[in-house]
Design goal:
This protein is of the alpha/beta class and 316 residues long. The chain contains 8 helices and 15 strands. The strands form 3 sheets. The protein has a 7-stranded mixed sheet.
């Protein structure tokens, strides 16, 4: 269902509303930089941001009056939810384009929950964008030296996806790994799950095949630390396929156990797990905030964007 296009081919018109998240990543402003005049821009930014903003947002604190900048406390999930409801509800007659490339994972999952509250008429005018990365941890000389985030500041369930946790039942932690194995170990130590299923992210993009290989090595390296029940593969390119992959993994878990998902992979897979959370209310989705980010070399863009129409997403 996903369409991949060049950034230069995106078609905005006067009256459209464009939303994004200001980040230290240059990718956060890639689409923003291409907007024509007459497109209203809403930029969310964290009021706890400890890193410089990247791209065109480097002076966001000085030029806030020139944009609709909404400073937000990421840790206040109720406020995030309310802001998303207000945003979607206040643009009822406009096309709404949301660049989720640099949305925090919990922010993105809450957005999916909010969108599910609205009807098909609203869904038909909302579209999500995801700018693909050409590389991650760009300054590393070897793939095994790449890292994105270190440490775990907190682990918490995501509002709207708190699932079910029954006393006396086994807890299965389904981990969708990215690069940072040490972070997953810290998270698993916090959660104290009884069993584990570990996912390896796969891609059909030949230029990014090294990512799948690195993910696979990350999972293998956990064998000496965790007694896990098995592995599964999931798509990082296609929301529908990712949903099917993760649902297949969940099917391996007994109904007598509770399931918690921790997703450390890309935003396409985060959208997929949020949609699964809507489909299976017993699932608990959790997020973890890091301590140190590889902000200087986090990622580079390849100039291509995945387009995800919300009306199609909600039918998956």
């Amino acid at each position: 269902m996903a369409t991949i296009v060049e950034v230069s081919s995106l078609d905005f018109v006067i009256g459209d509303v464009f939303v994004c998240w200001a980040s230290f990543e240059a990718r956060s402003s890639q689409i923003f930089d291409s907007l024509p005049g007459g497109v209203r821009s809403v930029v969310f930014a964290s009021n706890q941001h400890e890193y410089p903003f990247g791209g065109s947002f480097s002076g966001i604190r000085r030029r806030g009056s020139r944009l609709d900048v909404r400073w937000i406390d990421r840790d206040n999930q109720i406020a995030v939810y309310d802001d998303m409801v207000d945003l979607v509800g206040s643009t009822s007659s406009n096309r709404l384009w949301i660049d989720v490339t640099c949305f925090p994972r919990e922010f993105l999952a809450i957005l999916i929950k909010v969108l599910s509250r609205f009807d098909e008429q609203v869904h038909s005018r909302v579209c999500l964008f995801y700018s693909q990365a050409d590389d991650y941890a760009c300054g590393a000389k070897h793939d095994d030296d790449k890292w994105l985030v270190k440490g775990v500041q907190s682990v918490a369930p995501i509002l709207g996806f708190r699932g079910v946790r029954r006393p006396g039942k086994d807890l299965v932690l389904l981990g969708m790994l990215g690069f940072d194995v040490d972070r997953f170990l810290l998270i698993s130590n916090e959660i104290q799950a009884d069993r584990f299923l570990l996912g390896v992210g796969g891609t059909l993009v030949a230029e990014r095949s090294w990512m799948e290989a690195k993910n696979a090595r990350a999972v293998s390296s956990l064998q000496s630390f965790l007694d896990y029940d098995g592995e599964f593969r999931f798509s990082c390119d296609d929301v529908g396929q990712c949903m099917a992959d993760v649902e297949g993994a969940i099917a391996r878990v007994s109904e007598s156990a509770d399931v918690m998902i921790v997703n450390l992979n890309n935003k396409v897979s985060v959208i997929a797990t949020a949609l699964l959370g809507l489909k299976f209310p017993r699932l608990r989705l959790c997020h973890s905030s890091g301590i140190v980010y590889n902000w200087r070399e986090y990622s580079s863009a390849n100039g291509k964007v995945i387009i995800l129409p919300v009306d199609e997403l909600m039918k998956l």
